[in-house]
Design brief:
- The complex is a heterodimer.
- Chain A is built from 13 helices and no strands.
- Chain A is an all-alpha fold.
- In chain A, helix 1 packs antiparallel against helix 13, helix 5 packs across helix 8 and helix 6 crosses helix 8.
- Chain B contains 17 helices and 21 strands.
- In chain B, the strands form 6 sheets. Chain B has a 7-stranded mixed beta sheet, with helices on one face.
- By secondary structure, chain B is of the alpha+beta class.
- The chains are: A mainly alpha, B alpha+beta.
- At the A-B interface, helix 2, helix 3, helix 5, helix 7 and helix 8 of A face helix 1, helix 7 and helix 14 of B.
């Protein structure tokens, strides 16, 4: 087991290396010139050329790549072309809002979706089941920004209970933090509630038809024990998988949610950097996201061994 | 469990939830309203993210506005666009018009507490003169620029130049902001490492969150001029203790934040949302910039068909400004048909030569294209789909070109790609281009020197599209040397007449961006630039 974990962690190094090369080449072959954006609309071609020279953008690609990798090896993600601030500092500033938004969304989604899915499966064909399925379809169908604006209108504009936009750090108080994160988490979480509830329902429904469930009932176990200890535990592998994939997918949804609720997180940092071709930030962010993907997959794989003792690595 | 018991339990749960909500709601509501603070804070949703803080290094308008908060200028334009002293106390001009002597007024201090010196100003002008078009022209004309003593510096010109004070009081990017010498000595193509100015507000570096927040606090040591604020000139009185710039990229969110009172001011409501805000009694929607913006349809002068002036004249006959403005803005209160190259509302506004642009004529446009030798080759039109105004203008142009028989290919791209592609001088078939659109703020097109679009400086000196016309250039030089406003007006009209002959670009109209703010905001200054002094929050 430990050897497997070490192997998997070591395997991330070549993965990240390939990602680094791919990202670098893709970015530098994409049209767009940060020097032109910096120089502005009134710059002469000579001005732009001087800025390119200053930024080292006229060097051959392999030299630029070598320079980046050399800095990366020392833990230096580089300096933002535009703000002149270290990328690591910008990432650190943006990490908390995105992390907290992701965590609260996932926690929120699991707390609601898993019981909902289990209950729908338990009462398959009932009103509750149909309601859950309808909710799931709606959750999938309504875009994040529509949910966001609707929540904003009701709870921030009409009722004035919660703020329209912005993020308050948890360091500035738990209650202000919670107020700033409730609406974005719910808006972002809706689609994941739908997704997790559907998968949970399907998994539990499948397990409920197994012989050992019938046996458990025949032994005289209570319905709750059968449902939670036998059915849910055996249905857990696909549920955990979808939760893991959901976290990865969240990174995409976070960009929209951060824009709608004006949360200064990593999603917006990445989009802004792409629009301005701020290469060091884009490269740093894609590496970071790739690392998160790899880590999540590792954690999902490891969780299987706890949920299903038959699985061995 | 019977259904009745189930519902009883459900009812209890609902009651419990409602009770909890009732307990929490007032707490939430009170938390929303917040505590009254003794510190007066002005919160503005700004038009762009402040990504860099050196207003000499970049021409970005958001950085220019940041510059006006932190830095000060030697001269500044008043509401009549006349330069007035700002940091300068007295100045003299020699009889031959070649020697300008400037003396700084008393009480000027950098934010680090050291006094502003003449040497600081000399270094600042020199750095600005390496980046800005007007600055470069001024430096080309300058024989020497040196400090005489701590408060006095002297500029000696090679020949008389009528725009010395206008240049030093240039209102828009790049503005000649004054910095301490130790910072102004930074290479003009590198950003300064520290933000130290002498303006009415101080930069709070620790609070800066690129992509989200920039904070400025009142400079208690600032000594404003005694004259009332007028455009960029006059007394710069900090009416609040702290200015917060919030970057809210989503317009609907910014509107909601303004309605809920989370922000006091919104720099750039789009026309559709500003119309919606007009009905809100707590909010004022108004146009502060009397000059607005001017749209440009820029042809590439290097390649057929637009290397032929007749083809460019065809574009003038093809364009109807009203059509563009309806597509871009919609609200007639926010746009104006204005064929003048140096924009309406300025001393150089003129209708000389504007007949063709004022009267759309497809037949004439078709005939001119034929005379230019156009034989159906594909025209590449670059369309920046991430800039709504320019995307709309691109689609209008494409349709109009088709109506005059031009085969047009609209190539969609983001603005960043366009800014890179427009520098390509290759033929359109090899990755170059024929047409793109952009706009300029009115202040930046208000004179032949500021308006880089009318430069005929060919591939070496002209802006992208590279118009090449000796007469345009000689008229621009003549304008710079003109003795007075009357001469400038005459030369401006000659230049406009020539521009309609050789068509460096086609002006597709003037439009105005409103601002929106809550009723508790007072003292907002009318200007092409967003200033933050003089504003108070009641």
């Amino acid at each position: 087991m430990y050897a497997y974990v070490v192997r998997r962690i070591l395997a991330t190094i070549p993965v990240m290396g390939v990602v680094a090369i791919f990202v670098f080449l893709l970015l530098h072959l994409t049209p767009g010139d940060p020097a032109a954006v910096i120089a502005g609309d009134y710059a002469s071609p000579a001005d732009i050329e001087r800025i390119r020279e200053r930024l080292g953008l006229n060097d051959p690609l392999y030299i630029q790549f070598g320079r980046w990798i050399a800095h990366l090896a020392q833990g230096d993600l580089g300096i933002s072309i535009f703000s002149n601030l270290p990328v690591s500092q910008l990432v650190a500033q943006r990490l908390e809002p995105t992390l907290m938004l992701t965590v609260t969304t996932i926690v929120f989604a699991i707390i609601i979706a898993v019981p909902l899915g289990v209950f729908a499966a338990w009462k398959a064909g009932s009103f509750i089941d149909r309601f859950t399925m309808l909710f799931a379809v709606l959750g999938f169908s309504i875009p994040v920004f529509v949910v966001g604006y609707m929540l904003m209108y009701v709870f921030a504009i009409q009722l004035r209970w919660l703020p329209v936009q912005g993020y308050v750090s948890i360091a500035d108080g738990f209650w202000p933090f919670l107020r700033s994160i409730i609406l974005p988490s719910f808006a972002l979480g809706l689609i994941y509630i739908a997704l997790i509830a559907r998968i949970t329902r399907a998994s539990v429904l499948e397990v409920l038809t197994e012989d050992y469930i019938r046996t458990a009932h025949a032994k005289g176990l209570s319905s709750n024990v059968v449902l939670i200890r036998h059915a849910l535990k055996n249905a857990a592998v696909p549920i955990v998988t979808i939760i893991g994939i959901g976290i990865a997918l969240l990174i995409g949804g976070v960009v929209i949610t951060e824009s709608v609720f004006n949360i200064p997180g990593l999603g917006r940092l990445t989009v802004d950097a792409i629009l301005r071709r701020d290469y060091p930030i884009i490269q740093g962010m894609i590496l970071l996201f790739a690392g998160v993907y790899v880590l999540i997959n590792l954690l999902i794989d490891l969780s299987y061994t706890f949920l299903d003792p038959r699985i061995r690595y | 469990m019977t259904p009745t018991r189930k519902f009883t339990k459900l009812g209890k749960s609902i009651k419990l939830g409602a009770a909890a909500l009732a307990l929490v709601a007032p707490f939430v509501a009170s938390a929303v309203s917040g505590q009254a603070s003794a510190e007066k804070v002005f919160k503005a949703a700004v038009h762009a993210d402040l990504k860099n803080t050196d207003p000499i290094w970049t021409t970005a308008y958001i950085t220019r506005n940041h510059g006006y908060l932190v830095y000060d200028t030697l001269f500044a334009l008043d509401e009549n666009y006349e330069p007035q002293p700002q940091m300068v106390g007295e100045h003299t001009v020699s009889d031959d018009g070649l020697t300008y002597t400037f003396t700084l007024r008393d009480g000027l201090k950098w934010h680090d507490g050291t006094p502003v010196t003449a040497a600081d100003c000399v270094a600042s002008i020199q750095r600005w003169g390496k980046r800005d078009g007007m600055g470069q022209k001024l430096m080309d004309t300058t024989a020497s620029l040196e400090a005489v003593d701590d408060k006095t510096f002297k500029m000696v010109l090679k020949e008389p130049y009528g725009l010395v004070l206008h240049s030093l009081g240039k209102i828009s990017s790049n503005v000649p902001f004054m910095m301490p010498k130790r910072l102004a000595d930074t290479d003009a193509f590198e950003q300064v490492k520290e933000i130290v100015g002498s303006g009415p507000f101080k930069w709070v570096a620790d609070a800066w969150r690129p992509g989200s927040l920039a904070v400025y606090e009142k400079n208690e040591d600032y000594v404003p001029r005694s004259e009332p604020a007028s455009n960029a000139a006059g007394g710069k009185i900090a009416g609040v203790d702290r200015v917060e710039w919030h970057y809210i990229p989503d317009p609907a969110t910014a509107m909601n934040a303004l309605i809920s009172g989370e922000i006091d001011y919104w720099e750039n409501p789009p026309p559709d949302l500003s119309a919606a805000l007009k009905g809100n009694p707590d909010i004022k929607v108004t146009v502060l910039d009397p000059l607005g913006n001017q749209g440009w349809l820029r042809p590439n002068h290097l390649h057929p068909p637009f290397n032929n002036p007749k083809a460019r004249q065809a574009l003038v006959h093809m364009v109807s400004q009203a059509t563009y403005l309806q597509a871009i803005v919609g609200d007639p209160d926010l746009y104006k048909v204005c064929p003048a190259y140096f924009i309406c509302g300025t001393p150089l506004e003129s209708d000389v030569g504007t007949d063709a642009l004022a009267n759309q004529d497809f037949a004439k446009a078709k005939a001119l294209m034929k005379e230019a030798g156009y034989d159906g080759e594909k025209i590449i039109l670059m369309d920046p789909t991430d800039i709504p105004q320019l995307h709309a203008a691109s689609l209008v142009t494409a349709e109009l070109l088709r109506q005059i028989g031009v085969d047009v290919e609209v190539q969609a791209m983001d603005w960043s790609t366009l800014t890179s592609r427009r520098a390509e001088k290759k033929s359109p078939a090899d990755g170059g281009w024929n047409i793109f659109h952009t706009w300029s703020i009115g202040a930046d097109v208000s004179s032949p020197i500021a308006n880089i679009g009318v430069s005929g400086g060919c591939e070496e000196r002209a802006w992208f599209g590279w118009p090449c016309d000796e007469k345009l250039e000689s008229l621009r030089d003549a304008y710079a040397k003109a003795a007075d406003a009357a001469d400038q007006k005459v030369i401006g009209e000659q230049l406009q007449a020539r521009a309609f002959e050789v068509v460096p670009y086609v002006n597709f109209g003037q439009w105005f961006n409103p601002v929106a703010y809550r009723n508790n905001v007072k003292g907002v200054i009318s200007s092409p630039v967003q200033f933050y002094w003089n504003i108070a929050v009641e």
